[in-house]
Amino acid sequence: MKNLFLLIRPQQWIKNLVIFLPVFFGRAILDSHAMLNSFITMLAFCLISSSIYCLNDIVDRNDDRKHPDKQCRPIASGRVSIHQAIALIVGLFSLGLLALVPLGTETLPTAGILLAYWFMNVAYCLKLKQYAIIDVCIIAFGFILRILAGGTAADITLSKWIVLMTFLLMLFLSFAKRRDDVLRMNETGLPPRKNTIRYNITFINQAITITASVTLVCYIMYTVSPEVIAHLNTEHLYLTSIFVLLGLLRYIQIAVVDKKSGDPTKIIIRDRFTQLIVLAFGLSYLFIIYIL
């Protein structure tokens, strides 16, 4: 049971919190119906994404056995059989779809987005992750589907700037993660992924710089957008851009100076500075739209 629990990677479920972004940016946190639907959608995505993790570990089992960290994964180490993993995939996939039933009229459109996410990631696991740039774009687009599902379930129309910013931010994090792969390849001479040979430090550093810069610009454009100002009834959101800038700079510091950008989830869970910036951003944003 412990190995099956490790296989579904519950620590990665934190990524699905982005499903709550529509209610956060849409000033709907106090709307119990929107919050409940967002929670249900997050639960469904947790189950579906775990089924993808199982598939990924089946496909990568031979490469994982050569990796100093991934060789301990349940399938690569032989503690979980392929048949057990396939049964788990079917179970998680079925439960993920069933979890959406309580959404009522929003069940079918949200399920459609969920299925698009699942099939896209199946293609990613089986083939597309072998292609540089395409791999990080698919990861970033997966987060777009998450927030679209959250917006659909909560019946909230997303700002185009938030959609674009989410894609760019996740692209930034994905490139930072690939930087860790390149560093490992340079040290050992062995690429952790098949597409790592199509990246190098110069390219990764430039990609990180570009995506971070455009992410910041997108967020600023969001805060000064006329429709956002009218909807939230405030012209002060631009002040929260300070925390977005600090967050990006901190992550670049972790990637370039500390060289520890291999797992964004661990950074968010363990790095106190990053947590403080996220907390300050969230509180300042809520203060501006609800109190100021």
From TrEMBL:
<feature type="transmembrane region" description="Helical">
    <location>
        <begin position="36"/>
        <end position="59"/>
    </location>
</feature>
<protein>
    <recommendedName>
        <fullName>Prenyltransferase, UbiA family</fullName>
    </recommendedName>
</protein>
<keyword id="KW-1133">Transmembrane helix</keyword>
<dbReference type="GO" id="GO:0016765">
    <property type="term" value="F:transferase activity, transferring alkyl or aryl (other than methyl) groups"/>
</dbReference>
<keyword id="KW-1003">Cell membrane</keyword>
<feature type="transmembrane region" description="Helical">
    <location>
        <begin position="197"/>
        <end position="224"/>
    </location>
</feature>
<feature type="transmembrane region" description="Helical">
    <location>
        <begin position="107"/>
        <end position="126"/>
    </location>
</feature>
<feature type="transmembrane region" description="Helical">
    <location>
        <begin position="236"/>
        <end position="252"/>
    </location>
</feature>
<dbReference type="InterPro" id="IPR044878">
    <property type="entry name" value="UbiA_sf"/>
</dbReference>
<dbReference type="Pfam" id="PF01040">
    <property type="entry name" value="UbiA"/>
</dbReference>
<feature type="transmembrane region" description="Helical">
    <location>
        <begin position="158"/>
        <end position="176"/>
    </location>
</feature>
<feature type="transmembrane region" description="Helical">
    <location>
        <begin position="80"/>
        <end position="101"/>
    </location>
</feature>
<feature type="transmembrane region" description="Helical">
    <location>
        <begin position="133"/>
        <end position="152"/>
    </location>
</feature>
<dbReference type="InterPro" id="IPR000537">
    <property type="entry name" value="UbiA_prenyltransferase"/>
</dbReference>
<keyword id="KW-0812">Transmembrane</keyword>
<dbReference type="GO" id="GO:0016020">
    <property type="term" value="C:membrane"/>
</dbReference>
<feature type="transmembrane region" description="Helical">
    <location>
        <begin position="12"/>
        <end position="30"/>
    </location>
</feature>
<dbReference type="InterPro" id="IPR050475">
    <property type="entry name" value="Prenyltransferase_related"/>
</dbReference>
<keyword id="KW-0472">Membrane</keyword>
<feature type="transmembrane region" description="Helical">
    <location>
        <begin position="273"/>
        <end position="291"/>
    </location>
</feature>
